[in-house]
Amino acid sequence: MKNDGLLVVISGPAGTGKGTVVKELMQDEKIRVSVSATTRSPREGEENGFHYHFLTREAFLQMIEKDGFLEYAQYCGNFYGSPKEQAESWMQEGMDVILEIEVQGCRKIKEKNPECVSIFVMPPSMEVLEQRLRGRGTETEEVILRRLERAKEEIRLSADYDYIVVNDTVEQCAADIRCVLKAEKLRAKRFVK
Amino acid sequence: MKNDGLLVVISGPAGTGKGTVVKELMQDEKIRVSVSATTRSPREGEENGFHYHFLTREAFLQMIEKDGFLEYAQYCGNFYGSPKEQAESWMQEGMDVILEIEVQGCRKIKEKNPECVSIFVMPPSMEVLEQRLRGRGTETEEVILRRLERAKEEIRLSADYDYIVVNDTVEQCAADIRCVLKAEKLRAKRFVK
Fold it and tell me: Residues A83-133: pLDDT tens digits?
């Protein structure tokens, strides 16, 4: 077995703060975050190759054909996917590669990559999640209620993940995830003789 | 699911220094080490209840009858076992309980307690293990060679453990084990709702 990095799936309801946790993890020079590809148009301020790889529909379909995605899905008429090549080359260099994806995407990744490590970021409570969603001050009441409903559904599915970390504070949550990644490398099945 | 402590099996070849690592772990107030019971006679300096619980053959057999051991075995005509009651009461108090036992004992524990966490302490290399065994200066050449042979056998069986930690330095090895215990508590299957 080679001393490869880990494929790490991180999911969690909108408003849990998993984006901030992932940013904190990126400080580590052995951690990389996969940039998703999409066929949707860039929004203002979104940078190609940083927020997303913006692809034409043809380019995306060609990449599907070449088995170029770890997982992909269609959502509101647009494609979204996690490009395989960059992730695999980082892992071969010993980097842990984080995919920040939805619960459905996680299932697809696990099917093809059973050795991946899946982590669900849980809000401390539904009350705190609601506060965080309202605190943004950018969403309508209807959107907030829909997100809370969706969060409940996602939390029900969290038992399918390997690990559940609670995002009480960003530092603690990132430290917990670092500990999980360290421990995963000590698993006997990954031991390099 | 209750917020119980973990049942932790630690094994490793003689001379790996696992005893020193376990002593280091005992500094943690949430970690307890199970004291084995035996029917063999105390050696000089051995204290009842600290090094072993010294039992008569009758008392040991009665405890077997009452299902009082997590595992037990016969070795050179004497019985050795891990008492169940103390370990379970510590775990209910939220303590992690370490059993320092042989590879065979680990298998028996796993059969009855599949949720236990098993950790194999590996020497950095066979050369270092040999140096450590010779460094004690107390064993005959024959005993050293027999221990090295046995170590090789045990290392072959290390793949059955959940985790493998290398004892390069006691501090690093103990830190790795602490990280494993922390991560195990973050596993979704142990998540307390």
Answer: 999 999 999 999 999 999 988 889 999 998 999 999 999 999 999 999 988
Q: Select the residue of B159, B186, B191 nearest A180 (Cβ to Cβ).
A: B186
Residue ranges and CATH numbers for the domains of chain B are 7-190 (3.40.50.300)
Q: What are A88's two structure tokens?
A: 């695999």
**Which secondary structure element, helix H or strand E, spans residue B37, and what is its range?**
strand B37-38
Interface predicted TM-score (ipTM): 0.89
Query: Which residue, among A155, A177, A179, would best test binding to B if mutated, counting the most B CBs under 10 Å from its CB?
Result: A179
Residue among A159, A183, A189 whose CB faces B180 most closely: A183
**Whether the Cβ atoms of residue A118 and residue A162 lie closer than 8 Å to each other:** yes
| pTM of the predicted protein model | 0.90
Q: At what angle do helices B126-135 and B141-156 cross, to 10 degrees?
A: 140
Long-range pairs for A142-148: beta carbons < 8 A, 24 or more residues apart: A147/A13, A147/A14, A147/A15
